[in-house]
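Researcher: Sit down with what I've pasted below and flag anything odd:
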Amino acid sequence: MGHLTDKVAIITGGGRGIGAATARLLAGEGCRVVLAARTPGELEEMRRQIEEGGGRVLSVRTDVATEEDVVHLFAEAKREFGPVEILINNAGILERMPVHEMDVETWDRVLGVNLRGSFLCAREAMRQMIPRKQGSIINISSIAGVAGIEKWSGSAAYCASKGGVNLFTEVLSVEGKLHGIRVNSISPGAVQTRMWEQNSSEEADISPDDVAKAVLFLLSDEARTMQGSNLEMFGR
């Protein structure tokens, strides 16, 4: 898929799980990958893996809920590789707590990373993409944010944040279309990640690589007419 060669791709939550799988896949397709996460050790390990595989990579410690961090991330990416052409909004957290027991700090923390973070990164990406009239933004959401799907107790903040991401994607796609920018989302079910293991005793049947392949599809020429779409992944 040579059309991705030399494309600048920022991946948030890039230290492990879906973000790491996506980073490895896009680096293998020739992208210049920028990894963003809060954990320096995980970032360094992923940077090492990609470089050993012959990929070009930059890692930037980033809290996506913090405006200053996000602005710095995009400035560093542009300085090192040039304007961003692909944004994978993947950073996310889940904290299970019934609404009647939930403190404001927990609610704000979950929505801050999952929804505010998606907004901040998309805003900075759009500011670099609009002058060039091209780009692709993919928001990694969750089946938990899709209306009509059975929810589970203690997930109010997470579900609200991911539902917000899905609606944000729809609006952003309308704005992006005006400037040649495609915006879509992916809503997987249970994915084999540390976050899932820490919050559920059930076995996940979707791998991070499965989601990464869905990202690659949305970046491909085959998906060039998709705008504002939400790919739902229910597993086997």
The beta strands are 8-12, 32-37, 56-61, 86-89, 135-140, 181-188, 230-233. Helices lie at 17-28, 40-52, 67-80, 104-129, 156-177, 194-199, 208-219.
